[in-house]
């Protein structure tokens, strides 16, 4: 993905990331000093879990597009560029797997 498609995805994911963080901050401000158990209960709601899963996906996609563009623009030797892109992809993949694991743990404790 490059050009206008990458530009559009970067903006769309940034919009979602910003909205999610804004809602999270509003909940934090107006929660009246919720304790850990109340936060866990709120975060385990299906719609909140879905929004958080979408946040994770949007963050990973946003990070990949941005970092890939920086690497392609500023690292010119092919071998170095490929090495850095593989490292970035491995890091983001690890973050994604870890995030999915955390969401599955939260979802499995609905009982």
Automatic annotation (TrEMBL):
The record's listing under SUPFAM superfamilies reads: Fumarate reductase respiratory complex transmembrane subunits
Binding residues for a ubiquinone: 74
Query: Can the keyword Cell membrane be found in this entry's annotation?
Result: yes
GO terms (BP aspect): cytochrome complex assembly; tricarboxylic acid cycle
Which GO CC annotations does the UniProt entry carry?
A: plasma membrane
Quick check: keyword Repeat in the entry?
no
Q: Pathway it acts in?
A: Carbohydrate metabolism; tricarboxylic acid cycle
Q: What are the alphabetically sorted keywords of the record?
A: Cell inner membrane, Cell membrane, Electron transport, Heme, Iron, Membrane, Metal-binding, Transmembrane, Transmembrane helix, Transport, Tricarboxylic acid cycle
Its cofactor is:
heme
Where, subcellularly, is it found? Answer: Cell inner membrane
Please give, as recorded in its UniProt entry, the membrane topology of this protein.
Answer: Multi-pass membrane protein
- Give me the segments passing through the membrane: 46-67, 79-104
Q: How is the cofactor bound?
A: The heme is bound between the two transmembrane subunits.
Which Pfam families does this UniProt record tie to the protein?
Answer: Sdh_cyt
Where along the chain is heme bound? 62
Q: Which InterPro entries match?
A: SQR/QFR_C/D, Succ_DH_anchor, SuccDH_FuR_B_TM-su
Question: In the record, what terms sit under GO molecular function?
Answer: electron transfer activity; heme binding; metal ion binding
What's its job?
Membrane-anchoring subunit of succinate dehydrogenase (SDH).
**The protein's name in its UniProt record:** Succinate dehydrogenase hydrophobic membrane anchor subunit
Naturally occurring in which organism (per UniProt): Thioalkalivibrio denitrificans
């Amino acid at each position: 993905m490059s050009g206008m498609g990458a530009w559009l995805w970067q903006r769309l994911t940034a919009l979602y990331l910003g909205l999610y963080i804004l809602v999270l901050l509003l909940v934090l401000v107006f929660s009246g000093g919720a304790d850990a158990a109340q936060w866990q209960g709120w975060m385990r709601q299906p719609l909140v879990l879905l929004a958080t899963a979408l946040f994770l996906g949007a963050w990973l996609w946003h990070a990949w597009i941005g970092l890939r563009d920086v690497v392609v623009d500023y690292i010119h030797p092919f071998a170095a560029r490929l090495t850095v892109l593989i490292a970035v992809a491995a890091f983001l993949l690890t973050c994604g797997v870890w995030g999915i694991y955390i969401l599955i743990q939260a979802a499995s404790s609905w009982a």
